Amino acid sequence: MPPSSSVPEAAKTRRAGSAGQRSGAWRTAAEPVDEPTLSEEGGVRYLHFGTEWVQGAMRLRAPAELVLAYTQQMMAWLLFLEPTRKEEVGILGLGAGALTRFVLKYTQALTVTVEWNPAVTAACRMYFRLPAPARSRVEHCDAAEWVADGRNAGRCKALMVDLYDGLAQGPVRDSVQFYQDCHRALSDVGVMTVNLFGNHASFPRNVANIRTAFGNRVLQLPEIDEGNRVVLAFKGPALDVTVAQLLLRAQDVEARYRLPAVRWARALLAQRGRIMSLSV
User: Fold this and answer.
1) Cα Rg of the chain, angstroms
2) Which of 121, 165, 234, 274 could disulfide-link to 217, CB 3.0 to 4.6 Å?
3) How many beta carbons lie within 10 A of that of residue 18, not counting itself?
4) Phi then psi for 87, rounded to 5 degrees?
């Protein structure tokens, strides 16, 4: 098992049977796909969906820490937004509850997490210390139906989309219509982050569909070692932030949230070459 900084994220990044790493403590009983199963190693508890591929993780001594690198990148919207106590952050796909735990610990925002499988929620409540404060809701339904529901239009300041099943063959919801509905679920000014496979046939299709739904207002973080690639998409007035402003905000995010935000900001700037400001 590698150290926690390079924990295997194969359920989010590779197909079963590929060269992706596995959790050495995985139990080999033949549970059905998407039936939550657990393993532990090195003080970290892992969630699986009946396969060897890791679907989520929690450090037992620091439950709110984002153990997997891609989950840290899913919070990159913090470079551009600071949610208030009256605003809501949406999470599509509960996994091991890492994003929900982090948002509840480090922000004052309301949270709504959409998870189709009640067994995953039960596992998170029992084994992954999923909080249940009054400002947090878990809604059990298909994420595509949730974002298409007009009652959720304009609801989320930030929306994090991480929708994979136990087969890990790419996102289970990825149509233009789905991403258009995600756009509609954002508030007038909002940011969506999506976890994708960088080196996978689903990647160009997803990026193209996101670009169509969000009017080409898209940024991409570099692919991490495990293969994940997080895409950011923007709604609202055109964003134009100077290099100095972005780096200053990144330093603040890094200090307050303990996330590698300066690295993210520099990576986004490097993709644009020598520029005075980042526009999207």
Assistant:
1) 18
2) 234
3) 12
4) -100, 160
* Strands 218-220, 240-242: pairing kind: unpaired
How much is the average pLDDT of 197-222?
93
Distances in whole angstroms, Cα of residue 92 to Cα of each of 32, 172, 178, 259: 22, 11, 12, 21
Q: At what angle do helices 261-271 and 243-257 cross, to 10 degrees?
A: 150
Distance between CA atoms of residues 135 and 110, nearest Å: 5
pLDDT in tens, 211-224: 999 999 999 999 98
Report how far residue 46's alpha carbon sits from residue 191's, in angstroms, rounded to the nearest whole number. 28
- The predicted-structure confidence for 24-79, as pLDDT tens digits, reads as follows 333 334 434 478 999 999 999 999 988 887 889 999 999 999 999 999 999 999 99
Amino acid identity for residue 92 in this structure: L
**Confidence bin at 175 (pLDDT 50/70/90):** very high
- Residue 2 carries which DSSP code? -
Residue for token pair 């973080």: 221
Strand ranges, E, within the chain:
37-41, 44-48, 54-59, 88-92, 110-114, 136-139, 156-161, 186-197, 218-220, 228-235, 240-242, 277-279
Between the alpha carbon of residue 136 and those of residues 35, 195, 262, the distances in Å are 24, 22, 29
110-126 mean pLDDT: 96
- 29 closest CA partner among 38, 42, 17, 41: 38
**Which single residue is written with the structure tokens 């878990």?**
138
Residue 166: per-residue pLDDT: 59
